[in-house]
């Protein structure tokens, strides 16, 4: 299944929660929605699953042949932000109930429940009522309930929230497996290190607007077009020796033997190094690519500062 979201806007009374957002997710891809609290991720997801309607723009779901699909519950899984399972009923009762709602036969759903409970290390607890489980274990049961009917499109609002690192890895593996099976996965998350490992494409939103989107490389090129180098040299001497090079946007000493140089996006570094070395000896240098976490903090920090100033 493929998702095309075309210039979609959603307004609530006083706020534009989603502001002209477009994105494409193809079968076999994992797409991550990123952004601070209130950025508009859940609002976008709710429109996608048909819980609310866009004020303008278009959402199109198509099959592999390109034909439009009317999204029905059997086609997709949706893990909402507000989880809901019966607290007084056991894990097994809850999962069986959801499976029957999805139209599965007992002979199909019981082995699937067993497989998932084993995967998440919950087999011994399946008769326990939900209320006895920790938040993380409840989250695991909720995720299992979402995936039981083996849908082609999987939409997950914050699937990693409340999970410890080991269980985050389990969920990461489940999502990678879904991708391998050719499913379409769209998720929102705040765990940048996990998203960086998992997502093929991502959308970074703030105040409903897209700040950057695409692969990690594309996000990096949008948010950080300058190149950052770590340079080993006499940092104090270099600071004065290189002060009149217009190619250097920023020179930031790390310690007395290391500094970070920010070069403009169009600077040919190979021509620049010999000229710099003439003024101050360079022991070594290496290109540094900021990770998603750093890009996110820089960008969202700036966006929030601008919002505060406005
Ligand atoms: N039903 C609603 N009525 C009015 N305003 C709403 C409604 N739902 C969301 N909003 C507002 O829309 C904006 C986007 O909220 P949304 O829940 O989509 O953000 P989010 O990115 O999912 O945040 P979080 O990471 O906290 O879940 C926020 O300003 C929020 O207060």
Automatic annotation (TrEMBL):
<dbReference type="InterPro" id="IPR027417">
    <property type="entry name" value="P-loop_NTPase"/>
</dbReference>
<feature type="domain" description="ABC transporter">
    <location>
        <begin position="3"/>
        <end position="232"/>
    </location>
</feature>
<dbReference type="InterPro" id="IPR003593">
    <property type="entry name" value="AAA+_ATPase"/>
</dbReference>
<dbReference type="InterPro" id="IPR017871">
    <property type="entry name" value="ABC_transporter-like_CS"/>
</dbReference>
<keyword id="KW-0547">Nucleotide-binding</keyword>
<dbReference type="InterPro" id="IPR003439">
    <property type="entry name" value="ABC_transporter-like_ATP-bd"/>
</dbReference>
<dbReference type="GO" id="GO:0016887">
    <property type="term" value="F:ATP hydrolysis activity"/>
</dbReference>
<dbReference type="GO" id="GO:0005524">
    <property type="term" value="F:ATP binding"/>
</dbReference>
<keyword id="KW-0067">ATP-binding</keyword>
<dbReference type="InterPro" id="IPR050763">
    <property type="entry name" value="ABC_transporter_ATP-binding"/>
</dbReference>
<protein>
    <submittedName>
        <fullName>Na+ ABC transporter ATP-binding protein</fullName>
    </submittedName>
</protein>
<keyword id="KW-0813">Transport</keyword>
<dbReference type="Pfam" id="PF13732">
    <property type="entry name" value="DrrA1-3_C"/>
</dbReference>
<dbReference type="InterPro" id="IPR025302">
    <property type="entry name" value="DrrA1/2-like_C"/>
</dbReference>
<dbReference type="Pfam" id="PF00005">
    <property type="entry name" value="ABC_tran"/>
</dbReference>
């Amino acid at each position: 299944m493929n998702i095309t979201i075309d210039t979609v806007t959603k307004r609530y009374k006083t706020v534009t929660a989603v502001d002209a957002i477009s994105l494409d997710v193809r079968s076999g891809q994992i797409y991550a929605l990123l952004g601070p609290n209130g950025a508009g991720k859940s609002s976008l997801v709710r429109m996608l699953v048909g819980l609310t309607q866009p004020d303008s723009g278009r959402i199109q779901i198509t099959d592999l042949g390109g034909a439009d699909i009317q999204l029905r519950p059997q086609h997709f899984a949706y893990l909402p932000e507000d989880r809901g399972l019966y607290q007084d009923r056991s894990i097994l009762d809850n999962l069986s109930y959801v499976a029957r709602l999805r139209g599965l036969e007992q002979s199909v759903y019981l082995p699937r429940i067993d497989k998932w409970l084993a995967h998440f290390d919950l087999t011994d607890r399946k008769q326990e009522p939900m209320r006895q489980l920790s938040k993380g274990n409840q989250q695991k049961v909720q995720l299992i309930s979402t995936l039981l009917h083996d849908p082609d499109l999987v939409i997950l609002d914050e699937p990693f929230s409340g999970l410890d690192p080991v269980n985050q890895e389990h969920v990461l593996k489940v999502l990678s497996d879904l991708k391998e099976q050719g499913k379409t996965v769209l998720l929102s998350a705040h765990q940048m290190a996990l998203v960086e490992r998992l997502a093929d494409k991502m959308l970074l939103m703030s105040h409903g607007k897209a700040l950057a989107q695409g692969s990690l490389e594309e996000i990096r090129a949008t948010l950080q077009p300058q190149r950052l180098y770590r340079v080993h040299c006499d940092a104090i001497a270099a600071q004065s020796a290189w002060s009149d090079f217009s190619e250097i946007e920023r020179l930031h000493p790390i310690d007395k033997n290391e500094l970070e140089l920010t070069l403009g996006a169009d600077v040919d570094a190979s021509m620049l190094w010999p000229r710099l070395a003439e003024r101050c000896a360079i022991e070594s240098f290496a290109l540094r690519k900021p990770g998603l976490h750093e890009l996110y903090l820089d960008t969202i920090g700036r966006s929030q500062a601008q919002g505060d100033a406005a």
